Amino acid sequence: MPAGQSVMSVASADPTGDGRQHYVLALRDLAEDTLRTNGRAAPSRTLRVLVANADGSFVDAACNTRVIFTTDEGGQCDPFLDSDQGPVAKGAYFTVHNGVACGQHWTDYITFRYDRRRRACVFHKRVIEAWEMNTQDTPDADALRLSEHKEIAADPRRQILLSAYTPAS
User: pTM value?
Assistant: First the structure.
């Protein structure tokens, strides 16, 4: 664990197919709350992937400080902690869920895949959705309606490593 950081959330899976549990960690600066209270910009948050070795030790396989949105990137809510999901992992894939449902309503799912051949985590897909108030005036109308749905798939010819990935609008 890097000095000065604490764990917000953990997911585990076996992306390498070796039968061992590997971990996806969501980390934040220990001083995050203090910095925000004092009017400073929120510090970046870290997504770290740990791959288990046969001897029980772990290798830091990938790290990114842009995938988990900071506490001030969601308007009035924390786009990572308020989603209550943290990272989710299954097999070779793991997803980070950022989103808010207080004032604005949007989600931003960013998925990566562990490439066993390259022994690296690469960008797989990003799904962005936003909702707005439904102006339909019928008794059975939903309160919100989908106003945006965008999918950005990885280009298999130009893979982007997790460490180099930056969410672009």
Answer: 0.91
